[in-house]
Amino acid sequence: YRDIGDGPLAGSIGSDCIADNDCIGDMTCDKAVPGGYCLYGSCDGCPSDGTCEAFNGTDRCIAACDATRDCRTGYVCEGGACLPGEPIVPPFGFDVTEDVLDITCGGENLGPEDFGTRWRMTYEIPAGSTGYALVPFVKTGALRPIEIGLPSGGKIDLLSDYKHHNIRITEFQFFDQESDGTYGEVALDWPIVVPFAPQRAALMETGAHTVDVITSIDEPCVYALATDGTGTVVDLNIIFMGLEGYSAAMAPNDADLRAVFARVNTILEPSGIGLGDVKYFDAPRELAERYAHVRDDVEMRRATSFGAPRGPSRAGHLNVDMFLVEDLRLGGGSLVLGLSAGLPGPPGLHGNPANGLVFTGTDIGSDNDFVAHIMAHELGHYLGLRHTTEQSHNRESGVVLNFYLGTTDPIEDTPECMFVDANAATCPDATNLMFPFAPSEIFTPIITPGQTAALKANPLLRPAP
User: Fold this and answer.
1) Which residue from 187, 190, 192 is spatially nearest to 175, judged by alpha carbons?
2) Residue 423 pLDDT level (bands cut at 50, 70, 90)
C-alpha cells in the first residue's frame, strides 16, 4: 500500500479493474461493484494482505485493512475489510453551477504556443460594478492566464505586471491533470480579482472583456462575478472532517466554536467586514476517516475538493467551505495550523481541488483566540490578500518567486520587512493580519484601508441583512 493512503497499487487486491487481466496473478475482476474489484474467487490460500469476507453474497478473499486510508477511494474499512462505501452524491449536478455562475467554455482558438494552445474568451462586467473575480479553469489539464483585454482597448498583463494572483504557478505539482472532487468537473482554476489594490482602480472597467489563456489539454472555461462594493459579510460552511468530538448537530451550541467566531469578528471589525451566516455539516464517513489526518499537499487538495454549494442559486453558491480536521501536514511533514486552498479562492466553484480552507481543530477549546487569528488570516488569503512580506523576500531563495508573483503584496499602505525570517519580532508589518508568521501573543491585528479595499472587490462578500 502507498504511504499517502490511496489504497492498493494497480492490479493488487482491492484495486480497480475493468477485466481479469487488470489484476495480478490468479485474481479476477468483480465487475459488479463500483469501479471493479481485484480479488480471489475463493478463500483458499488468501494472502496476508487479504481477508476472507462475504462479498456480493459469496465468501471471497478481498483486501484487508486497518483503516479506511488503506482502501481506495469509494471504499471504507469495515471489520478489517475494504468494502464499498456510501456514494458521495452532490446535491445537484454541475450543470446547475454552470448556469448559476454563467460559466462558458471554449472561445477563440488562437493556435499553438509554448506549453499548449492559446485561447481567447469573453466575459461581461455590468455597469455599476466596483470589482470582480475572474476565474478561468479547465476540466482536464492545466492552464495559464496571459492577459485581459479591456473594453477601452487597454490590456492587463497577467504575466509580469498584474502578477500577484499567480500563486498557482507554485502549485502545479499538487494538481492532477484530471478533475476531482464532489463534481469531478475542474482540474485547475486560476482566480483573479480586479482591482487587486486600490492604486489599480483604473483597471476596473465595465463592459465586454477578453481574457487570453494557454491550456495544455482541454479547452478552457471562464466565469466572472462582479460586486458593487457593498458587501460586508462572508458566509461559512463548517465541515467536520474527522475532528474528534465535533458534529454538525452539537456545533451551533458549542461555546468554544462560538468564542472562535466571535474573536474572528473582533479581528475583522476594524475593516467593516465580518462573518455572516455560519452553517455546519458532517463530512461523509469515508471522507471523515480518510482525511481526518491530512499528511501532504496532495491530500489537502483532495480533502478540500469535497465541498458543495448550499443551494442552486447564486446566493447558495457564494459561501466559503471550511474543513476542520485533526491535523494538517504539508511538505516535509511539518504541522500547519490552517491553509487556504486558493489565493484568492474561486468564488462559488465548490467541489474542486482548490476550494475552501482547511484547519486543524485540536486547539479549539485550549486557545480559541489563537485559532481565530489563524482563521481570519487564512480567510484573508481566500478573499485575495497576500502576505505583507513573504519569508523569502530579499533572499536568493525568493528570486524565482519574485519573478512570477512577487515577494510582497502590491497594496501601497502595507509595510514590508527587509529580512522577515531574521527580524520577525521587529518587522514593521508584524502587527498586520497578513504577516506570514503566527503571533506569539494575542493582539488585534491591523487591516489597512488598502487591504479593506482589496477585500471589498471580492464578490464572496455580501451585504449584511
Assistant:
1) 187
2) confident
Q: Which residues contact 408 (CB under 8 A, 6 or more apart)?
A: 386, 387, 388, 389, 390, 393, 414, 416
Sign of CA dihedral 312, 314, 315, 320: positive
The single-letter DSSP state of residue 426 is G
Whether 82 and 76 have beta carbons less than 8 Å apart is answered as yes
C-alpha cell at 103: 460559466
Give the Cα separation of 322 and 312 in Å (integer).
19
Residues 62-83 pLDDT 10s: 999 999 999 999 999 999 999 9
Report residue 211 as a C-alpha cell: 481574457
In order, the DSSP letters of 119-179 are EEEEEEE-TT--EEEEEEEESBS-EEEEEEE-TTS-EEETTTTS-TTGGGGGTGGGS-SB-
Strand partners, 348: none
391 phi and psi angles, rounded to 5 deg: -60, -25
CB 183 within 8 A of CB 94: yes
Q: What is the DSSP letter of 378?
A: H
CA distances for 137 relative to 180, 186, 233, 384, angstroms: 13, 7, 26, 17
Which cell numbers in the block locate residue 179?
A: 478533475
Residue 265, classified by CB atoms within 10 Å of its CB into exposed (0-12), middle (13-18) or buried (19+), is middle
Tell me the pTM: 0.94
* DSSP 3-state of 36: coil
Q: Is the dihedral of CA 85, 89, 94, 95 positive or negative?
A: positive
